[in-house]
Amino acid sequence: MTAKTDSLEIGVLCYPGAQSAAVHGMTDLFAVANRVAGQLGDHDLPALRVSHWQLEASGQLQVIADTHPGPGHALRALMIPPSLAATPSAELLQAHRVALCALHAQGVVLASVCIGVFLIAGSGLLDGRPACTHWNYAQALSERFPQVRVQGSQPLLDDGDIVTSAGLMAWTDLGLHLIERFVGHGLARETARYLSVEPAPAPLPGALFQPRLEHGDEAVLKVQHWLQGEEARAASLADMARCAGLEPRTFLRRFRAATGLRPTEYAQQVRVGRACRLLEFTRRNVEQIAWGVGYQDPGAFRKVFQRLTGMTPSDYRRRFAVVCG
């Protein structure tokens, strides 16, 4: 990020039962990042603004705390902390559903820690999509929301517009990940070093794609969400234009203006990102993975994969696999 921006706002959802240590710890983490950026002389980086949000009786989310009080809010991400209580009730999930869906539709990244994922799942936004949570709650998440593809082996899963993390104390990892994603790896590394915690690892080739979601074009954002949910399987330009409700030429122009990519290039990035996670965390062979992310021709998949990551799928697995095979 080179252009000077005043602030980059990250919200924290303060729902009944939310772990206070996580709410305030995440706030402190971003304050440390601001201090570290100043000490490093990174004056072109935006200040990280943290706001706390709470659901009011009206059903709207209202700000109850703000590290940089000022007019207006422009959330880039909303973090949903864990809870020391039981899994959230159906009534709590239903109460937050409309507000979370509205933020997601505006391009806000939803990011959860541990059982915070239940609030996202309860909104329906994870239907047909992968997510992770604490191992003790993985079965409960699967049973309550069978359409969510629970990934028990992954500590943190960035799926573009939704990020989920597993451990009860994973708010540190999630906070550093968001700093890396929105501001850069260098600041995330130096913030971890200041806090004397495990530094954020350098992003793997398959995690380098970070989609633009804050562009404000609702029709394009609708297609981006659809591609994430459908894993971009066999999505043609005509399919995407139809989803956007636009004529194909108009859609192509607006999509490129909003995301910086052609629709087919964007879909390839989504597919390859999913393939990378499958190579890292499963024992499926390359052909099965190619078919699973929407390529009928494994040879074509290998070419696209190597072009985007700089290595073959087999080489990627040998270097980065968590589950060998």
UniProtKB/TrEMBL annotation:
Pfam families: HTH_18
Keyword terms: DNA-binding, Transcription, Transcription regulation
Annotated ranges, domain HTH araC/xylS-type: 221-319
InterPro entries in the cross-refs: HTH_AraC (IPR018060), HTH_AraC-typ_CS (IPR018062), INH-QAR (IPR052158)
Protein's name according to its UniProt entry: GlxA family transcriptional regulator
Lineage: Bacteria, Pseudomonadati, Pseudomonadota, Gammaproteobacteria, Pseudomonadales
